[in-house]
Predict the 3D structure of the following.
Amino acid sequence: MDKLTTTIKRQWLREIVARRKKVEYREIKKYWTDRLKKVRTPFLLRLINGMVARAPEVTVRIDRVRKNARSGNYELRIGRIVEVRHWDRRRERPTV
């Protein structure tokens, strides 16, 4: 299965891990258009919050990609959470 890696803000990582956020949005720009052309759905999306070795991260399966020209975003439909690393699900914060 194909895999993409990108960064994400902590508040959105928290929402995805808690399963409150079902869609990840990315702007329709050449960068994302080129990256999304290289993968086939479903694919894995690794979202990292930070650049340190123990940065919180979540890997999710993207089941569908929709181009919403009206909002100017790609809508990446999150299917299921594959892996969560360096994140305390109960406290909804990074592990120490």
Summary: The chain has a mean pLDDT of 97. The chain has one domain: 3-88. The first helix runs from residue 10 to 17.
